[in-house]
Amino acid sequence: MATPPVPPSQAAAGGNFEAPPPPAMQPPGTDMTGICFRDQLWLNTYPLDRNLIFDYFALSPFYDWTCNNEQLRMRSIHPLDISQLS
């Protein structure tokens, strides 16, 4: 079985969890109830598993670049790595 390619965010960082530049933020109060996020190209290319789920979520317009998960990703700590959390 062929190994899927490394996601761009991990390839550029040598396996670290650096994210691509954030998408344009929606102004506070913007009605986003009619927006649905799905990146089919990404889903067809990479498995949606615990190692890549945060990379996928970071592509969404709903992702908060100030959240704790992003702070961990910026320090190359996987958000599910319990040994790194205090």
UniProtKB/TrEMBL annotation:
Keywords: Activator, Nucleus, Transcription, Transcription regulation
InterPro entries tied to this protein: Mediator_Med6, Mediator_Med6_sf
Region (Disordered): 1-30
Localisation per UniProt entry: Nucleus
Any single Pfam family the record assigns to this protein: Med6
Subunit structure: Component of the Mediator complex.
PANTHER family reported in the protein's UniProt record: MED-6-RELATED (PTHR13104)
Protein family membership: Belongs to the Mediator complex subunit 6 family.
Biological function: Component of the Mediator complex, a coactivator involved in the regulated transcription of nearly all RNA polymerase II-dependent genes. Mediator functions as a bridge to convey information from gene-specific regulatory proteins to the basal RNA polymerase II transcription machinery. Mediator is recruited to promoters by direct interactions with regulatory proteins and serves as a scaffold for the assembly of a functional preinitiation complex with RNA polymerase II and the general transcription factors.
Name of this protein: Mediator of RNA polymerase II transcription subunit 6
